[in-house]
Amino acid sequence: MCDLRSVQVNTATPYEVTIAPGLLADCGPRLRALMPPCHMAVITDSTVAPLYLETVQKSLAAAGFSVSSHVFPAGERSKNFSTLAGILEFLAERRLTRTDCVAALGGGVTGDMAGFAAAVYLRGIRCVQLPTTLLSAVDSSVGGKTAIDLTAGKNLAGAFLQPAAVLCDTNCLASLPADAFADGAAEAVKTGILCDESLFALFEDGTLAAEPGTVIARCVAYKAGVVERDEKEQGERKLLNLGHTIGHAIEKCSGYAVPHGHAVAAGLAVTARAAEALGWTEEPIAGRIAACLAQNGLPTGANFSSEDLAEAASADKKRAGGDITLVVPKRIGLCELKKIPVSELLPVIRAGLEG
To answer: Is 238 a catalytic residue?
Structure first.
C-alpha cells in the first residue's frame, strides 16, 4: 500500500499502529501475522455493523480465525455497566479463552467498551482496535485507556489494556457525517495545542480534510511518545486531558447529547479563555484556538451555567481530595498541569465563559 504509515508504540507490551486505506478488508492476514488462528470476537455498534462488519468477518475467516460478533446500540448512552455485562456474557457464551482475542470495530465508545471487556474477562485477554472514526483514529484507539461512564460522571470505571495492534482504515472516514468528522477534529486540534506549531497549523490550513492519513500519523506519533514515557498516567500523560475536565462536564450536563469531541472543543476554548484572562498564558492564544475550532466546525462555548459546569466537573476523575488538576495552555506547543482547589473551579469556568 503506497499510502501506508505505521507508528510503533513501545509500551510494556509493544504494538504497531498501521494507517492506510483498505485495512479492514485486509485485517485478517495482517492480524494472522501477529497471532495464530484463534477465536476473534468482533464487538461493534448498530451504526458501524451495517457498514463494515461483514467485510471484517470475511477477512478474518479467510485468514483462519473463528469469528463471532456482538452488536450493541450506538451512542454514549450505551457506555455503561449494562452494555459491558452484555459483552462479557457474550464472550463467556462463546467460550473465549485467554488465547483468544477481542476486536473493537468502531469509534471511541466501542473501543472503550470492547477494550474494558477484554481487560476484565478472564482477568485479561488480547484486544485489537479497528477504529472507524477520526476521533478513535487520532486518539482513543491508542494508549490502552478503556472505561465506562457512571451516573456520577464520565469514564469513572475502567482499566488499562494496551491493544495487540491498531489498524486504522482511512477509507472509513469517507462514511462519516460532517459532525462526526468534526468530533474527531477536536481531539486532533487538542494534540496540536500540546505538540507544536507545525502540527497545530495543519488544522488552520485545511490539511486535516485534505490529507487525514498524514495528520492521524502525526497525532498518533505524539501520543505514542507520551504514553511510552507515562503508560499509567502518573504524570505527563495527564496533559492529554487538555479540555477534558470542562468537556466532560458539558457532556454530563447535556445528558450526553453533546458528542465527546464537540464537548472537548468547547472545553478547549473555555480553558484557553480562562487561562488568558487569569494571566496563566505566555501569549494571547484564546482567539487563535477558538478560530481554529470554528474553522473545523466545532463549538467554542457552552450553553450551561458556570455553576452547573463547576458542579459536574467537581466529580471529574482528575480530582484528588479537595484539589483538581487542570491542563492549562501557556502557548501553542506548551501546556502545564495546574492544581487548584475545587472551590476555585467556579471562578475559572466563569472567566472562560465570559472571556
So the answer is: no
